[in-house]
Automatic annotation (TrEMBL):
Lineage: Eukaryota, Viridiplantae, Streptophyta, Embryophyta, Tracheophyta
PANTHER family xref list: MITOCHONDRIAL AMIDOXIME REDUCING COMPONENT 1, MOLYBDOPTERIN COFACTOR SULFURASE MOSC
Protein name as annotated: MOSC domain-containing protein
Residue intervals of the MOSC domain: 170-330
Disordered, as annotated region: 1-35
């Protein structure tokens, strides 16, 4: 291999840690048996993390991967007086709650101190500061979708803040990773876990898919309507439907199933006002009737691909993904009808 080709492969991360068979796959992808560098199919344009379920997300330049998704993602949730989780589906006002974390919280190996806080703001409300060290209080009887268990209670001040904002009794709780686990649906992916994400650790949408949708809308919608973790760019519209195995940088991800959308995309994330779009248009162009006409019809609409990370995330140094990382498609299906959904 010539020096110039070796430099090209090193710049794409194709030498060093990749296994021999993975190098072979990439040489096949590039259509060459001479070892030329694989060409990325897309790149990571943005990374989003949502520390409090259904509250506003944070755009970050890089983030560590964990067993349950990005670190800090959906680690907290607001619950009602019965311990049942509250989302934007029931309380659209949560869209107005802004969450900020220390910038260093997304760095490799960082651990919180007693002076580390998550800051929460909303219109007409005082600043709420939540210590990032685990709270001592345990709340039993917390339920989220089909899961129930205990969680860590963030105390009376946080409870009063959310009670005053939403106008009903509620508390802020944190997933108790020391004693609880929450499995993803084993029909689609076995041995993977989440905290307070709806279904899977990661969700990816491409900018091209959003652009294609917006061409059908009278008023374009921003990406925050869909709350992905990864915004990809540089691929064909809706190509992520087909991705069953990808690499982001050197890390392997499995495309688990198409992301079925609930009512949240109809909520304006700047005003919390609910309207018919974009779901009405998605029903015309992205329903199971359109994408999967020969499959069982459930009246669902789809945008985005749910992912799990296939790497060992419990050993060694933190595995970091950053904006600008290349995406390599290793395996894919031919049509959305062939994809799991």
């Amino acid at each position: 291999m010539g020096q110039e080709k070796m430099k090209q492969q090193q710049s794409l991360g194709l030498l060093g840690n990749w296994k021999e068979e993975e190098e072979e796959e990439d040489m096949e992808k590039s259509g060459s048996s001479t070892g030329t560098a694989a060409v990325a199919d897309a790149k990571i344009a943005s990374i989003f993390i949502y520390p409090v379920k259904s509250c506003r997300g944070i755009s970050v330049p890089h983030a560590p991967l964990t067993l349950t998704g990005f670190r800090w993602d959906r680690q907290w949730v607001v619950v009602n007086e019965k311990g049942r989780a509250i989302s934007q589906r029931a309380e659209a006002k949560l869209a107005l709650v802004e969450v900020n974390m220390p910038k260093e919280a997304f760095s490799e190996g960082w651990e919180p101190t007693k002076n580390s806080y998550m800051e929460i703001k909303a219109p007409g409300m005082d600043l709420l500061k939540i210590p990032l060290c685990n709270p001592p209080l345990v709340a039993d009887g917390v339920s989220f979708m089909r899961w129930s268990g205990s969680a860590l209670d963030e105390g009376d001040q946080a409870s009063k803040w959310f009670t005053d904002f939403l106008g009903k009794p509620c508390r802020l709780v944190r997933f108790n990773a020391a004693s609880e686990t929450r499995d993803v649906d084993p029909v689609y992916a076995q041995g993977y876990f989440v905290m307070f994400s709806d279904q899977y650790p990661f969700m990816l949408i491409s900018q091209e898919s959003l652009d294609a949708l917006n061409k059908h809308l009278n008023e374009p919608v921003p990406i925050n309507r869909f709350r992905p973790n990864f915004l990809a760019a540089g691929c064909e519209p809706f190509s992520e439907d087909l991705w069953t195995e990808i690499k982001i940088s050197q890390f392997s991800f499995q495309g688990v199933k198409l992301c079925a959308r609930c009512k949240v995309p109809t909520i304006d994330q700047d005003t919390a006002i609910v309207g018919p779009e974009p779901n009405a248009t998605l029903m015309k162009i992205r329903s199971d009737k359109v994408l999967r006409p020969d499959k069982k019809q459930q009246g669902k609409i789809y945008l985005g691909q749910s992912l799990v990370c296939k790497e060992n995330l419990t050993e060694g140094k933190a595995k970091m993904v950053k904006v600008g990382d290349p995406i390599y498609v290793i395996n894919k299906v031919s049509t959305a009808a062939e994809a799991a959904a």
